[in-house]
Amino acid sequence: MKFYPERLTQLRESLNISKAEAARRLNISAMTYGRYEKGEREPSYQSVCYIAQVFHCNVDFLYGVSDDMDCDYIIISRSESPDLYALVEIMKKDAELSNRLTIYARELLKKEKTPEN
Fold this sequence. Notes:
Helix content: 55-70%
Mean pLDDT: 92
Radius of gyration: 18 Å
Low-confidence stretches: none
CATH topology of the largest domain: 434 Repressor (Amino-terminal Domain)
Largest sheet: none
Strand content: under 5%
Number of helices: 7
């Protein structure tokens, strides 16, 4: 697969961050990041996966396979979101609770999308 540098630029601009900030978040030099965006250097597949993870993006978007920028999965960190992490752990062990919470979440999302009168 071929990496599309213009997609990286599009992603960064959608996040409204500078090249320097993008490099900082990825823990790489600004020069390396700039070369990725200019297409002078292609990141490894592992690096592309890391970019997608850090910027909450779909890997296929960065390779031009999909036009959908949204990620396919999220990572829940125990240290950053202990309550959410604990809830997911409980849901993995209790299928009935997981089903009930999923139904409840769908109802909440429906209400959120419905315009108020």
